[in-house]
Write a structure and sequence with these properties.
Blueprint: E1 20-24, H1 32-45, E2 49-52, H2 57-60, H3 70-81, E3 85-89, H4 97-102, H5 129-146, E4 152-156, H6 171-185, H7 188-195, H8 222-248, E5 255-256, E6 258-259, H9 270-273, E7 281-283, H10 293-307, E8 313-317, H11 336-346, E9 349-354, H12 380-394, E10 402-403, E11 407-410, H13 413-419, H14 431-444, E12 450-452, E13 463-466, H15 474-485, E14 489-493, H16 515-518, E15 520-525, E16 533-535, E17 541-543, E18 547-551, E19 555-559, E20 569-576, E21 579-584, E22 587-588, H17 590-604, E23 616-622, E24 626-633, E25 639-640, E26 645-647, E27 652-654, E28 659-660, E29 665-671
Parallel strand pairs: 1-2, 1-9, 2-3, 3-4, 4-5, 6-7, 7-8, 8-9, 11-12, 11-13, 13-14, 14-21
Antiparallel strand pairs: 10-23, 15-18, 16-17, 17-22, 19-20, 20-21, 23-24, 24-29, 25-28, 26-27, 26-29
Length: 675
């Protein structure tokens, strides 16, 4: 967590007036006479940072080694003349047709051995030395030309690395995978032990025998799959490092790439990526395939703040309205763009940027929304963009302020990879769903949550929530045990602590690494059908999962009333050292989960800003002189709240016992003494 007294300085350092308000721009898609209109309208909208050259490779290098920077020179100069900073892409995210024609070996292969061809984007293998050679040559040429340009405020390496090509199964990737494994395990016997290759006659005698987990006729070795995910994340991170090294050799401008902390991308372990970034940046789009999309938005924002070490970060992309890649692409309702944007700011972003500036007329993203829509400036979207841009300028005083919490939620990409594999007790159990349910339960009680990695320092927290941490190392599990022993409180949910970092089941009873701190032992899992509901004592309902659990020092706070384990403990509480660990052996209904988390938070002495109505979010950012309370209303009803101060959105004072309008947002400035 961010302790009191931490210097409140924004790490963005992008030299903007106010918070960052930016966009992606693709000038190569437009005639040059449009450029001047665009920049004029950017000024009108309050845009102060523009990402360019994200997909510029074929425009800058139309033939091998033949670089053309004149157009990029012109647009950078035009933006600079109008006081707009540049977020300069290296242009390497998608290879040009000439490269894949000359070197088709750079194209990626999927698990069945078939090639994925050009015509989309990211048609390259992360392990390809030929792709890297050409991409680094472009990055170097671009960095040499613009590395000292005062208009460039940020370097943007590639784009959404791994969005489409994170997992490549070609022979080049196979060789790189073997090299990664040899460095990790040193000896082939250590690998055999870690992967459990005594099973199904999989013992390897030589490194050369190992392949990526390509499609098989049966289940694939789960430890092999887990290590392939690790390798693939590391391979893309190594590629990022290579571009960043080229840039940093000639430029002191900050370097980053855009993460995708979102519900539908899980291939990068961003806990290992974040330390490599000069600025932590994230892309996020509402996912209408989820039940309540704005809750996942809040989780993503809090997780990105966690990746930034609690310090401010940059929202690199989101949308003004509809996207183009979901089954149904919903336009945002009036005020929704403002709520989405300010939710990111509330949870630590010092800037919000959009894809894209002007809506494209051609290509796959022609129906993706933009700051300047097809309908032009006489549109609701444009008017809301101008309103938001003006507000972001006024919010400059928030820069560098931070969000503080004494509640942590442990989140692990490695546990996500391992939990969602095949041949588990239930195919219905999905890791991220359980993480989201725990997070939403904390939102429901008005808690602000820090998202932390397994093994993170928990000092300063009062409560740690551990949802479904199936895979965890002994060392990382011990951090949680020690936290409880030292007086902390923990809530641990089912299917946690089961396997070590190699996906090897811990011997003895479940929940493995957490059975001592929880004071329980589980001898067998009893998963339930998705539609099946069971009742608990105290009136709660539950589903999805149950366990034949025995008390080993803990007390049962709820038992099963019906179902296969009638009378057995379902929820437990254990005093361990000077702290308390609670264990949830089943998936509680949302209201009951919130109640259990509220009891845990209260007993731990954890803080919450205020009781909240459903659909209301309240978050506090803390600055040197002022606190800023964000009250975000996702409902269609006017809602009261207990806060007073000066609202930076309406520029009006809020008296005690104020209300927030339907669909509205308030940012209430309070002096430290009044907070």
């Amino acid at each position: 967590m961010i302790p009191a007294g931490t210097p409140l300085t924004s790490p963005l350092g992008l030299g903007t007036d106010g918070l960052v308000f930016g966009c992606d721009y693709n000038p190569e898609q437009w005639d040059k006479q449009v450029w001047h209109d665009d920049v004029r309208l950017m000024r009108e909208a309050g845009v102060n940072l523009v990402a360019i050259n994200v997909f510029g490779w074929s425009h800058i290098e139309p033939r091998r080694g033949d670089f053309h920077f004149d157009d990029l020179d012109e647009i950078i100069a035009l933006l600079a003349a109008n006081g707009i900073g540049v977020n300069l892409g290296t242009g390497t995210s998608s290879p040009p047709p000439w490269l894949t024609t000359l070197h088709p070996e750079i194209l990626p292969q999927v698990g069945d051995g078939t090639t994925r061809w050009p015509g989309g984007r990211q048609a390259w293998c992360p392990s390809s030395p030929m792709f890297r050679e050409h991409a680094l040559a472009l990055a170097e040429a671009t960095a040499l030309r613009y590395g000292q340009n005062a208009a460039v405020k940020l370097w943007h390496v590639s784009n959404e690395l791994g969005c489409h090509n994170a997992l490549c199964y070609c022979d080049v990737s196979a060789a790189a995978f073997r090299g990664w494994l040899e460095r990790r395990y040193v000896s082939i016997e250590a690998l055999n032990e870690a992967w459990g290759t005594a099973f199904w006659s999989q013992h390897y005698a030589e490194w050369a025998e190992i392949l990526p987990p390509r499609d098989t006729l049966s289940f694939i070795n789960p430890s092999q799959q887990l290590d392939f995910f690790r390798f693939s994340s590391d391979e893309l991170l190594d590629y990022y490092r290579a571009e960043a090294e080229v840039i940093r050799a000639v430029s002191a401008i900050p370097v980053t790439t855009n993460f995708m902390v979102t519900a539908h991308i899980k291939t990068q372990d961003y806990w290992s990526w974040a330390p490599e970034m000069d600025v932590v940046a994230n892309d996020h789009y509402l996912d209408h395939r989820l039940g309540v999309p704005h809750r996942e938005l809040s989780f993503s924002a809090d997780a990105t703040r966690g990746l930034a070490g609690g310090r401010p970060w940059l929202l690199m992309e989101h949308s003004t309205s509809a996207v183009n890649w979901q089954p149904q692409n919903h336009a945002k309702a009036p005020g929704e763009m403002m709520r989405n944007s300010l939710t990111h700011v509330a949870r630590g972003a010092d800037g919000v940027c959009f894809f894209q500036w002007r809506a494209s007329l051609r290509g796959t993203e022609k129906f993706h929304s933009a700051l300047l829509p097809h309908s032009g400036t006489d549109s609701r979207v444009w008017r809301e963009v101008v309103e938001l841009g003006s507000l972001m300028h006024r919010l400059g005083e928030l820069a560098g302020s931070v969000v503080r919490s004494d509640i942590a939620l442990v989140f692990s990409w490695e546990a996500w990879w391992a939990t969602d594999q095949d041949a588990h007790p239930s195919s219905e159990l999905r890791y991220l769903e359980q993480v989201h349910l725990a997070y939403e339960g904390l939102l429901a009680i008005g808690a602000t949550v820090d998202i932390v990695a397994p093994g993170a320092d928990l000092s300063g927290y009062r409560l740690v929530v551990v949802p479904c941490l199936y895979l965890v190392s002994d060392a990382d599990a011990q951090v949680i045990t020690d936290f409880v022993a030292g007086g902390g409180h923990a809530v641990i949910s089912f299917f946690s602590g089961i396997v070590d970092e190699h996906d090897s089941v811990r011997p003895g009873s479940y929940p493995g690494a957490f059975r001592d701190v929880a004071g329980i032992s589980t001898e067998e899992f009893y998963p339930l059908d998705r539609a099946e509901t069971i009742r608990l004592s105290g009136g709660a309902t539950a589903g999805l999962w149950s366990e034949l659990l025995h008390l080993r020092g803990a007390e049962a706070t709820a038992r099963y009333v019906d179902g296969p384990l009638t009378g057995m403990p379902a929820v437990t509480r254990n005093e361990y050292g000077t702290g308390v660990a609670r264990y949830l052996a089943t998936m509680l209904d949302p209201a009951s989960l919130a109640e259990e988390l509220a009891r845990a938070a209260s007993e731990a002495g954890a803080s919450s800003l205020a009781p909240v109505a459903d659909g209301i979010e309240i978050v506090r950012r803390s600055g040197t002189e002022h606190d800023y309370v964000f009250v975000i209303n996702h409902t269609d009803a006017e809602t009261p709240h207990p806060f007073s101060g000066h609202d930076l959105v309406s520029e009006a004072d809020i008296a005690p016992g104020g209300t927030v309008a339907p669909g509205g947002v308030q940012i209430i400035r309070q002096t430290k003494e009044a907070s």
